Amino acid sequence: MRIGFFMLAAFVAAVAGSPSFRNMLVLEQRSDVPVGFTKGTPAPAANVLDLRLAIKQNDMAGLEKALFDVSTPGSALYGQHLTKEEVEAFVTPAPESISLIQEWLVANDITAKTISPAGDWIQFSIPVSQANTLLEADFTIFNHDETGTQLTRTLAYSIPATLQESSSNLESRAVPASCNTVVTPACLQALYGIPTTPATQSTNKLGVSGFLDQFANQADLARFLKSFRPDLASTTTFALQTLDGGANTQTPADAGDEANLDTQYTVGIATGVPVTFISVGNKVKDGNLGGFLDIINFLLGEAAPPQVLTTSYGQNEDTISSALAVQLCNAYMQLGARGVSILFASGDGGVAGSQTTTCSKSFLPTFPSGCPFMTSVGATTGNTETAATFSSGGFSNIFARPSYQTANVATFLTALGKTNAGKFNTTGRGFPDVSAQGENVQIVVDTKTGSVAGTSCSSPIFASVISLLNDRLIAAGKSPLGFLNPFLYSAAGAAALNDITTAHRYCFRGDNPGCGTNGFPARAGWDPVTGLGTPNFSKLLTAVGL
C-alpha cells in the first residue's frame, strides 16, 4: 500500500462568475497535521512549485447519471459504454470558465498549459514567494517521520471569490489443505472456481498500475510460471507502458515486491488475458497526487483503454484535500463511463487506515476506497475463508453513501448498534466492496520464492476474475462489465459472491482492529471488512447472463 502525503491542494479551483480578483476567500484549510508528519520551517522563497488548477467541469451530474445508466443491470442503456468523446463532452469546462481562469493567470504574469484530455486541468510553475501571495498561503516544509522525506505543502489557501462561487461454469474444486498456509494460483483456482482455459479475446485487456520505482521483473515471472503455472508457457509475459519518466528496469536486484506480485497474479490468474504493466515515474504532473491522476488522464487519452485497471497503492483519506479527492474521484467516473472497471486495494491497517498502527479517537478511512466510482478490495485468509485482521474498511468522511449500497450498509449499521459509536461517519460511503485472499501469497522476487500479505494481493486477484468474465462477455458479443458496483450490489451480483461471516481466530470481537478498538465485525451480508465477499466464478458467469 502506498503511504502518501496529500496536504491541502493549493492548486484546486473551480471557476465561474465575473472578473474581479481582489476579494479573496479561503477555499480549504485544516488546523492539524496528518498523522505521521511534522511541520518544519517555511519553504525557501525561491523554490519553484509546480501547481495545477482544476477548472469547473461542465456536467458531472450528467456524467454520473450516464455512468449508472450504463452500469446498472436492468437499465435500458446497460453495457452501452460511452466513447472518449462522449465522456469529454460532460467534462470539458464551459468557455467562460476557461476564459476567466486565464484572465486571472495573465493578470499575475502566469502562463499555463493544459494537462488533461478534456481540458479541465491546467499546470504552471511559480516560486514559493509568488504562490504565497497569489493564494494567500503559507507553504512550509513538512517531514514524513518514518521515511524522512521532506515535502512542501500548505495547510490553507485562498482564491478570488469570483473563482470560488461556482466551485465545485465451474464450481469451486476441492481446496488442498496446504492452501491454509501457502496460497498459489492453484489454490485460488480451486477456491474460487477460476478457469485455467485461456481467454480468447485479444481486445480484452488488464492494466496493472506501477508506482514508486517498483519494477516488474520478467525473469521472475518466468520462474513463477514454471513453479506455479506449468501449464502456461514460461515465456508468457506482459506489455509495458510508461509515463512521467517511468521505466521497468530488469536488473534482478531492482525487482519490486509489489510490481512482481501484481504482474504475477494477473498473468498467472487471468489466463490468456493480455496484461499491461503501466509504470508511472517520478516526474509526475499531478503534484501531490503522486501520479494517481496522471495515469487516469493517460488512459482517458487512449481510444481503447484496458477494460480493467488494478492498483495496490493508496493512503489515508485525511492526508488529501476533500476538493482534490473529489476531482480524482470524478476522473474515475469518467473512465468508468468508458467501460473500465477500476479496482484498488483497501489498505492494511484495519480501521486505523492504510498502514497506520496508531490513530486518534476516530477511525481512519483510506483513499481512494471512499470514492464511490471505483471498487475497493479487502482481504481474507484460509481455506474456510475468514476476514484478514489487517483488512482496511470503514466509512468515508468525504463521500456520501452511494445509492447502490444504501440497503446493504443500513442493514449492517442496524446490526452493529452502538458499537464504535462516534468513531466513524455513519452516512459515509462504506468500503471495501469485495475481497479476496490476502495472506501467505507466494511470489518470486530476485529469483527467490517467498510469501507476502496485504490487500495488495487481493486487488489483482479479484481484477483477474473480472477480466476473465469480460473475456466471456466479449466472446458472446456483449459489453464488458465496466463500473462494477451497481452490479455487485444487485441481488444477482451479491448472490454470486462468497459471503464472509467469520473473523480470524486471533481476532476476538472485531475483524479489523485499530485505534484501540476491535474494529468492525464480519457478519452476514456486506460488512466494512470483507465487503460483499469473495468471487465464485461459475455463479458470476450466471449473474452476468452467460
TrEMBL record:
Chief location: secreted
Domain Peptidase S53 intervals: 182-546
PROSITE patterns on file: SEDOLISIN
Subcellular location: Secreted, Extracellular space
Cofactor binding comment, as recorded: Binds 1 Ca(2+) ion per subunit.
GO molecular function: metal ion binding; serine-type endopeptidase activity; tripeptidyl-peptidase activity
An individual GO BP term: proteolysis
One GO CC annotation: extracellular region
Keywords for this protein: Calcium, Glycoprotein, Hydrolase, Metal-binding, Protease, Secreted, Serine protease, Signal, Virulence, Zymogen
Organism superkingdom: Eukaryota
Catalysed reactions, as listed in the record: Release of an N-terminal tripeptide from a polypeptide
Active site residues of this protein: 258, 262, 456
Residues that, per the record, bind Ca(2+): 499-500, 525, 527
The keyword Hydrolase belongs to this UniProt entry's keyword annotation: yes
One Pfam family it belongs to: Pro-kuma_activ
Signal peptide: 1-17
Cofactor: Ca(2+)
Known EC number: 3.4.14.10
Transmembrane segments: none
Main function: Secreted tripeptidyl-peptidase which degrades proteins at acidic pHs and is involved in virulence.
Name the record gives this protein: tripeptidyl-peptidase II
Record organism: Hypholoma sublateritium (strain FD-334 SS-4)
